[in-house]
């Protein structure tokens, strides 16, 4: 017994009441699993709305069905869809559109979901230099005026997200940021 | 409406505060001690210090009738302080916890009190006459994380507890020989110790900062770190609740709440001001701040001369002084309590915060 290093004993394994020994999923709200194929079909429906000029309908559709229960692939697909919608809406339309969503039933929740996509999913994604994403031309028609390589493409997407973030905080308040940080249902 | 009464006691955070029943004595948890203040005119003067804890005191509560003070601390101990001829006499309470105590509240019957702790359990403490000793019984199941807040039902048997696992729970703390058998209510009929009468999770599962029963005990409100407040109306024992109303606000999270009456809640927290919420079973909404906007004379237009403006710009690089918040509390409000009641309604509340102020508000 003398040469046992007490500090390396995993005491949690020996204690039946230890927090390491219970199912952590009971602490989180339940989410229904979503298949990646469903996310993709939703994405194509939303793209159709977008092509038809119905920006608000597209955004609403994307925010009302967040794939919290999907795997990483499904979440990636939906993130790309939301970013695409955000980039196709002009800056002057942002505030009135957010106002309309906020005052409609279920609106505050939809804006909380939007906040999740802007900060910190969207910003987190564009800041990690993802070469394949930055080299492809932006589908929004943003002209690449800075021919300085990959990081600038991320900067473009970031500026769109930042202006959305500003408009969104004006309407949904700091409460929505706190909710994003608190919420265990990640998008 | 009378202006709020502001007492700036010291420049330290106040973890918890409690007034005696006559509202002449104020106990404030300050670092490792509890400071006792006596009202002198319209000011509070430091009269006594309760020293004994060797880590930060996290909770203090004065029993309204017996005048006993219970304190708990991060040193994992609780003391019951009784007035005697030569000052306050502490009695150590055997909590049997291996993590910090986080909060403490006397039951309305004053025969027992509950302590929240980081050890994922709630010691319910009562006085054993034979041994002349405060002993505790542990509420354990199904708590999964630190208890941040406890609140008593008026019948002194049901206890609400909020936890960092995102659940607000209603538990029975019935102790044979101490409690009388409670009247059956919507929460439950037979209530042996550690019966779980309700377990509630809000949408985001954010951790709970504050819980409170309504004055009748037939509704439970809890505030969580997702800036929301949830009110639960139970229907019958073992049945899903009649209504669960969740209001997510645009504000920063609430740290503390009190029911003013069955249809009004006052909540305060990281926004440094208290808010009024009104509603019923059919819905709740935010009804504004207690803070009167643009208080005259508070900051006012002192001197708007060009000379002063340029002097300010020279000294500070700006013309207006914006180092003060325009709320009365200058930092997070951590705790609010009922101060005065009349006609079944709370008419005054007291609040304390990180800024070392205790404020009495007229509602």
TrEMBL record, chain A:
Protein location: Cytoplasm, Cytoskeleton
Family note: Belongs to the ARPC5 family.
Keywords: Cytoplasm, Cytoskeleton
One Pfam match: P16-Arc
GO cellular component: Arp2/3 protein complex
InterPro entries named among the record's database cross-references: ARPC5, ARPC5_sf
Organism (species): Westerdykella ornata
The protein's name: Actin-related protein 2/3 complex subunit 5
Physiological role: Functions as component of the Arp2/3 complex which is involved in regulation of actin polymerization and together with an activating nucleation-promoting factor (NPF) mediates the formation of branched actin networks. Arp2/3 complex plays a critical role in the control of cell morphogenesis via the modulation of cell polarity development.
GO biological process assignments: Arp2/3 complex-mediated actin nucleation; regulation of actin filament polymerization
Signal sequence region: none
Automatic annotation (TrEMBL), chain B:
Gene3D superfamilies (alphabetical): YVTN repeat-like/Quinoprotein amine dehydrogenase
Keywords assigned: Actin-binding, Cytoplasm, Cytoskeleton, Repeat, WD repeat
Location of this chain's protein in the cell: Cytoplasm, Cytoskeleton, Actin patch
Listed GO MF terms: actin filament binding
InterPro entries listed in its UniProt record: ARPC1, WD40/YVTN_repeat-like_dom_sf, WD40_repeat_dom_sf, WD40_rpt
Gene Ontology cellular component annotations, sorted alphabetically: actin cortical patch; Arp2/3 protein complex
Gene Ontology BP annotations: Arp2/3 complex-mediated actin nucleation
Database matches in SMART domains: WD40
PROSITE patterns per record: WD_REPEATS_2, WD_REPEATS_REGION
Positions of WD repeats: 50-82
Pfam families (alphabetical): WD40
Function: Functions as component of the Arp2/3 complex which is involved in regulation of actin polymerization and together with an activating nucleation-promoting factor (NPF) mediates the formation of branched actin networks.
Membership in a protein family: Belongs to the WD repeat ARPC1 family.
Name this polypeptide is given: Actin-related protein 2/3 complex subunit
Record organism: Westerdykella ornata
